[in-house]
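MODEL INPUT / OUTPUT PAIR
PAIR INDEX: 1
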Amino acid sequence: MDNPGTRTAQVDRQAAGRLQRLLFGAGITQAISAVAALGIPDLLMDGPRSCAELAAATRTHEPTLYRVLRVLAGEGVLAQDERDDFGLTSVGNLLRSDCVGSQRASAIMKGSPWEWAAWGVFRSSVEDGQTAFRHAHGLALFDYLHGHPDAAAIFNDMMTGLTSAKCDAILRAYDFSGVGTYADVGGGHGVLMARALAAYPGMHGILFDLPSVAEGARPRLQAAGVADRCRVVGGSFLEAVPIGGDLYSLVSVLLNWEDGQAETILRACHAAMQGRGRLIVVDWLVPPGSDPHPSKYLDLQMLVLFGGRQRTEPQFADLLTRSGFKVSRVIGTPAGFSIIEAAPSPAG
């Protein structure tokens, strides 16, 4: 490891610039969130436009909007041409509301006052290991969402966008052939269920989530023409999971919960499976070492908002074993996340 004291002045200036940019990350987050909330990426879907046009369309202060757009162009979120018109890059395109895997809701949520307040007391989590959101608001995130419908709508749209981005990779990497009934536990608004049932016409489905969330899946299932093959069930997976599935999935679910609650969810799935079938857990696996990786950033997100965590492959194996499962295989995907397949253990 280099001794920072032995570096040249030039290296020190580079280090200072690097640190300054990292420290301004919060400002970039808010700039992206504001532009997404204003719908500017949607306004740019047909091509570049001037800041004056964008300000008029969004009823914003043109000189101030220009300062924001200029920063985002420097970060590669937008493109700025010689006429000072702004357009979309491949990164900015993900902030459109109509693109597959849209991250617009995620960006809006990142800049929302309620999430921002949790990051504002991040040090409290470091000091006591508790969830920053609870420090900031006095209650858990899901309890907060229950009492704040607008925030819940943003959160559910965010989860839908994240699941949508994973669907292709899941369906390409995992073969659902031979599955009579597929049960998606924590299936949200039915993005994956609709795609899976459309891809496998002989398969039936059970979509399970909190009642207020699961109801939001019905329009999507109907639009996909698969509603007649899917039973939508409301409830809490911390209490019980519907029986009758040959394959159960937990897609981006366990990361939201600490080990004790994650084990409760897995045991509820185990009980519903009645000693047969398969379970797939879709999540990021934290790699060893200190190299940057999406799972490590998400791990801090879990600490701040949910009290959950990202896990390594051995940690997942241990959690599944304690819950009565035996890991069959781990399937990597080009998207970076993994699919962990497990079956009820005879001793479970």
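PAIR INDEX: 2
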Amino acid sequence: MSKIVKVGLIQAKWEGDVEAMIRKHERMIDEAAAKAVQILCLQELFFAPYFPAEQDAKWYELAEPVPGPITNRMGKKVKEHNIVLIVPMYEKEMAGVYYNTSVVFDADGNILGKYRKNHLPHNPPGFWEKFYFKPGNLGYPVFNTRYAKVGIYLCYDRHFPEGARVLGLNGAEIVFNPSATVAGLSKYLWELEQPAHAVANGYFIAAINRVGVEAPWNIGEFYGSSYICNPRGEVIAKGSEDKDEVVVADVDLDMIKEVRHIWEFYRDRRPETYGKLVEL
């Protein structure tokens, strides 16, 4: 019998206010639960605008500890619906030390752990992440949730195949990539890189992108197009480019074994030849 897991992704426009954004996501979590979603992921920095579009220390005030007020609210939703929930947020470890983090809740409402974004863009104009975040220090963990083994990559991470491979080696069945990416130079990569990761590593990819133009920065339009991709590189569900949406697909975890028995990439790896990858 196939092992089917219903996966959901939330893409949403910035509401202009943190509390309004949290409330909207609470409603959309309810909507996902009504569709019988078992594993749900929110977009990068879900409760905020994409503030790394500028450099201003006022945004440090948005950072919260984990656990903290926002994770407490999200945990209540998890318990209400018995879903696995991935919550990307601005994490405060201590004053002056902040991370771009995704917190993973298991279906019982407890925090399984977190992933801290490893690769940080600092590409003017519009992407000043090293001003706000310290590079991640937790490696590439995989979380054994009630429904599947879940890995996290965060936005800019997707341009680096090394971590995507490590997630596979660590046992990930589904890798979620919450993002904030705008139309322009990298849009073609949105449709290319992550299906390639899915094929190369034999797992499912679930990629999330926010929607809309965020004032006052207007660095471009966040084009949504959130999607779920199977280990063959086929997109099995995709969101719109311009509206709030819960994107849902049934994921057959048995396909992972089926595909890996055809493409034996893990068997045929030659790590003893890859030393150049870790030379400084």
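PAIR 2 NOTE: Residues 4-278 form a domain with the Nitrilase/N-carbamoyl-D-aminoacid amidohydrolase fold (CATH 3.60.110.10).
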